[in-house]
Backbone:
């Protein structure tokens, strides 16, 4: 089931996506191109995982982490499907990162790998945008580089019950219709279940907390006027244009 939230005719709706249409609480159909999209749910904590694909670490010239490398993604950075990403003035290298986002369904504390996926509510698509200019010290969490307003597109759907195996999904990123990035979740260094075990060992994960699981090789520069479209099979497509900030 693909759950969503949107504004239509001045009202906020929680609905589902089915057969190319958005169905609201009353079953009324809405054209996806005629609504204002919202985040599909209200996230709790948002935790990112850096360098979770070996080929991405290699393209950046960085060594593989010996354990999951975590960082915070501020909730103020989150942006819905079709929302406008603001390009910071004066920066030289900003790029997208298509990522599988895991949404927690119930409280987790010291959960083992074999049970971890039972605590997952669903999945969505994330774009972990980065200004590479600001990444000068890999031992310091990249808050300035990744935490800017609009730098966390998420959605368009919360997919519940539609993913049999989170380690068997293809990820793709397009810029202006051109395929720029492609990978597969089987190439993660730490699987979804392993990440949940690792994080829940020292931190209670709560319903609607989000884990961004890393990106594969294939990043490239984007800028004002570009449109990013990120796809993960079974989860839909997350699209956001870029405009220069005022």
Residues:
């Amino acid at each position: 089931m693909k759950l969503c939230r949107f504004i239509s005719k001045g009202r906020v709706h929680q609905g589902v996506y089915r057969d190319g249409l958005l169905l609201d609480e009353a079953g009324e159909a809405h054209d996806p191109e005629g609504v204002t999209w919202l985040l599909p749910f209200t996230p709790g904590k948002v935790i990112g995982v850096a360098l979770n694909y070996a080929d991405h670490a290699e393209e950046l010239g960085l060594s593989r982490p010996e354990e999951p490398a975590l960082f915070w993604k501020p909730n103020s950075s989150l942006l819905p499907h079709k929302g406008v990403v603001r390009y910071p003035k004066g920066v030289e290298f900003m790029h997208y990162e298509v990522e599988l986002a895991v949404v927690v369904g119930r409280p987790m504390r010291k959960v083992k790998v074999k049970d971890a996926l039972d605590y997952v509510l669903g999945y969505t698509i994330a774009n972990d945008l980065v200004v590479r200019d600001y990444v000068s010290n890999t031992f310091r969490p990249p808050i300035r580089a990744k935490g800017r307003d609009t730098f966390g597109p998420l959605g368009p759907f919360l997919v519940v019950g539609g993913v049999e195996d989170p380690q068997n999904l293809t990820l793709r990123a397009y810029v202006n219709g051109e395929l720029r990035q492609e990978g597969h979740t089987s190439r993660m260094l730490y699987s979804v279940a392993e990440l949940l075990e690792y994080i829940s060992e020292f931190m209670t994960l709560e319903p609607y907390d989000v884990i961004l699981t890393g990106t594969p090789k294939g990043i490239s520069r984007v800028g004002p006027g570009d449109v990013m479209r990120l796809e993960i099979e079974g989860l839909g497509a997350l699209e956001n244009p870029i405009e220069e900030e005022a």
The radius of gyration is 17 Å.
